[in-house]
Amino acid sequence: MISEIAKVGIDTPADTAMIDITESLRETVHNSPVVKGVVWVTTLHTTTGITVNEGLPDVEADLIAMLRRLAPTESSDYLHARWLPSDGAMAINSATHQRAAILGPQVAFPIDAGEIVLGSRQRVYFVELDGPLRRNYLTHILGE
Amino acid sequence: MIDFHTHLACVKEAVDPHPGLAEDCQRIFGMGPGWSMRTFLAAMDEAGIDKSVVLPIDCTSAHGGKVFSNEQVAQAVQDQPRLIGFASVDPNLPNAAAELERAVRELGLRGLKLDPALQGFDPGDRSVYPVYEKAAELDIPMVIHAGLSWAPLGRSANANPLALESVAHDIPELRFCIAHFGFPWVREALLLALRFPQVYLDTAVIYSGSPAEALDRVVKIDVGYDVVRRSLRNQIVFASNTPRIRPKRMAYAVQALGFDQELYHNITHANAVRLLGGKEEQ
After folding, report:
1. I need a surface site. Which of B48, B80, B149, B150 has the fewest CB within 10 A?
2. What is the CATH number of domain A2-143?
3. Which pTM does this prediction carry?
4. Which of A84, A92, A96 has the most B C-beta neighbours within 10 Å, making it the best mutation to test the interface with B?
């Protein structure tokens, strides 16, 4: 059984951004010795998400709008809007945590014949929800 | 837009070259490096900020260290035209005024930062006057911390802005900015700004809630929206206190107040230029 874990760094460009990482992922799987297996993509942050959808700008825009509608940036209801001593900074990003929870931190796809198996319209996105920042995600390939 | 209150304690390229600085930043300021300079500048871009004033704090006598020395600030801003470096001196030390002059004339720093909560001095005490007078002589502005100090070693009791009334009266040539609207002593800070046109207030209000909520409460309840519009148009400067918050959130907070276009421009740019002595474009 082969197990390969790689950390990928990315400088996100804006407060909210859907960053298409499909080709990078495809190349990572292609370059791996695994012929049959699975690949996980996992973010290492709590205000980012990993998601899959159709690679169209209006779809991306609608997804971001949905996240903002479901978890508005400002709300007097949020408890997570206070000084956080461990950070030495204000913790005032409840909405971005909620958006990350909606998206989830991970996706997984099968590997067959040494390639990632994706639907024809599926694109894998690293979603920045509280940028711009230096972020990291993992790819984990497991198989034979 | 000019951000009049930021700190480089979070920037690895600024901190890492200097042994012991990361530890002093964490111990005194409560935060160490975690961002790159690229991220710091990208955060400015996201907020629509063109230039940021970066503020050190000299805590030599109070805590045996500095949150950036003047040399370290000068080095950090040397290749960063978007950053405006200020100096800090320890008012408890006899050479403070001379060090300020050196920092300005030799290192090219463009203002003074003092923090009575962290530096352990009474801002109204006449023993500090040589530093204030030197700043006035050098025609540089001063940013002085007032109110709530989030620094782990800070003593907010030293930072009631009312202590600066005598300074404003006795040294009218000194342009100074009371940070954080002096929260929670907002009305004391307001008193000074109303009385003295050379006194400014910065918007870095963070205590609980989002910056939009906090600033809204301070402006509309503690100060009065009409008071800002009528009497403080030329005396408020945009400030985020990065990295205590992300600057985009303070930029949104100021936008959300819904000031008229001229007042918004004053707060985000024109007042800062005047406070800098009209030399921002040089």
Report:
1. B48
2. 2.60.120.460
3. 0.95
4. A92
